């Protein structure tokens, strides 16, 4: 298994990109920034933020060569002396796309790295990082009498707000790109990944696993009630079986998955119809057989809920046979669940 790692920083520059419609403006640096004292913080920030299993590539129709950021990156890789000029060009594009009222202005930091490792190759890399949220911190000042404290505002180094890292490989297919976006979950969030970068997921095992588990979860939680009578315990059971399949198999087979998880022919038929429609609406190209990514399974396991919440009084965790839980209604209208077990642990 190949290790993916970020190399040693070679160049760094900072520009300010505001919200185009709020009058924040755009301010360039004309020279590279001294990074000697901050390289360690950058490496920590990047290693703590990026998932290098989930990769993207630049795209544009009819050809990726028309993607502006792709062209700026390509120019830097071909001629590192164009670093300042091309990062300014990228900042202009980001400023042009920053026109939604909820988009915050912030510093765009661009760094060039040497000695990055991916898929067994050692290549150069370029990172784009935008800081939108600032943190307060106290700076300690030494005085003749002792110490003073001064309040300052700066860039957080725990997690990136927005970022991307481009490895100089697979140039003709749009490079290999890792993306981070931890802010703006609404409609305005699309500006970083879609409008500025113009990237699309690479259909590797992580993407295939992540997307198919997402389809299964959406079907169970949002579609099931429209065609079948089901309660929350039934849904949790289907979610558990879906996750159980991916945890217990190394290879995914769609027909096998449907048979083991949904079992009932009508339920399988409904899922196939939903799956086909979901892929078409979201422009997803997924295989019906692929190698399962354990890291994608772990990621999705965090959002596959196996908890049955009953008012504010009880949380029932369902991990196994749903036939051991029975739902009913008392004559006075009170609802109940009956649980069967062999021993109390």
Strand portion, in percent?
25-35%
Mean pLDDT score, rounded? 88
How is the largest sheet built, in terms of strand order? 2-1-4-5-8-9-3-10
Radius of gyration: 25 Å
| Domain count | 2
Rough outline? globular
> How many strands?
16
Distance between the termini: 40 Å
The arrangement of helices and strands along the chain is EEHEHHEEEEEEHEHHEHHEHEEEE
Per-chain topology:
Elements: E1 8-17, E2 26-27, H1 39-47, E3 55-58, H2 68-78, H3 83-97, E4 106-118, E5 121-131, E6 134-142, E7 147-155, E8 162-167, E9 176-181, H4 190-197, E10 199-201, H5 205-227, H6 232-248, E11 251-253, H7 254-261, H8 265-281, E12 289-291, H9 294-301, E13 307-310, E14 314-317, E15 325-329, E16 335-339
Antiparallel strand pairs: 1-2, 1-4, 3-9, 3-10, 4-5, 5-8, 6-7, 8-9, 11-12, 13-14, 15-16
Keywords:
alpha+beta, 2 domains, globular, two-stranded antiparallel ribbon, 345 residues
Detailed description of the structure:
- The chain has 345 residues and is of the alpha+beta class.
- The protein folds into 2 domains: 8-132 and 160-201, no CATH class; 206-339, no CATH class.
- The chain contains 9 helices and 16 strands.
- It has helices spanning 39-47, 68-78, 83-97, 190-197, 205-227, 232-248, 254-261, 265-281, 294-301; strands at 8-17, 26-27, 55-58, 106-118, 121-131, 134-142, 147-155, 162-167, 176-181, 199-201, 251-253, 289-291, 307-310, 314-317, 325-329, 335-339.
- The strands form 5 sheets. It has an 8-stranded antiparallel beta sheet. A two-stranded antiparallel sheet has the order 6-7. A two-stranded antiparallel sheet has the order 11-12.
- Strand 4 (106-118) and strand 5 (121-131) form a beta hairpin.
- Helix 5 crosses helix 8 and helix 5 (205-227) packs parallel to helix 9 (294-301).
- The radius of gyration is 25 Å and the shape is globular.
- The mean pLDDT is 88.
């Amino acid at each position: 298994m190949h290790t993916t790692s970020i190399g040693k920083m070679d160049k760094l520059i900072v520009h300010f990109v505001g919200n185009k419609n709020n009058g924040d403006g755009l301010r360039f640096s004309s020279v590279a920034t001294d990074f000697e004292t901050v390289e360690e913080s950058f490496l920590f920030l990047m290693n703590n933020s990026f998932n290098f299993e989930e990769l993207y590539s630049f795209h544009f129709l009819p050809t990726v060569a028309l993607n502006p950021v792709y062209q700026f990156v390509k120019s830097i890789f071909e001629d590192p002396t164009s670093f300042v000029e091309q990062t300014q060009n990228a900042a202009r594009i980001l400023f042009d796309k920053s026109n939604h009222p909820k988009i915050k202005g912030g510093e765009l930091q661009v760094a060039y790295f040497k000695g990055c490792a991916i898929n067994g190759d050692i290549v150069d890399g370029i990172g784009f990082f935008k800081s939108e949220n600032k943190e307060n911190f106290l700076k300690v000042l030494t005085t003749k009498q002792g110490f003073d404290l001064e309040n300052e505002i700066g860039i957080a180094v725990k997690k990136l707000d927005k970022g991307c890292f481009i490895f100089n490989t697979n140039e003709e297919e749009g490079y290999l790109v890792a993306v981070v976006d931890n802010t703006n979950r609404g409609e305005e969030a699309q500006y970083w990944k879609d409008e500025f970068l113009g990237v699309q997921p690479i259909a590797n095992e992580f993407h295939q696993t992540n997307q198919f588990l997402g389809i299964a979860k959406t079907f169970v939680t949002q579609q099931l009630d429209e065609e079948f009578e089901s309660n929350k315990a039934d849904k949790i059971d289907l979610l558990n079986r879906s996750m159980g399949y991916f945890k217990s198999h190394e290879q995914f087979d769609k027909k096998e998955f449907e048979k083991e998880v949904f079992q009932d022919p009508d339920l399988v038929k409904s899922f196939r119809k939903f799956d086909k429609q979901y892929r078409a609406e979201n422009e997803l190209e997924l295989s019906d057989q692929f190698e399962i990514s354990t890291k994608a399974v772990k990621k999705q396991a965090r959002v596959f809920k196996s908890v049955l919440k009953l008012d504010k009084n009880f949380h029932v965790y369902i991990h196994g046979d749903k036939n051991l839980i029975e739902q009913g209604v008392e004559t006075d209208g009170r609802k109940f669940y009956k649980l069967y077990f062999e021993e109390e642990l």
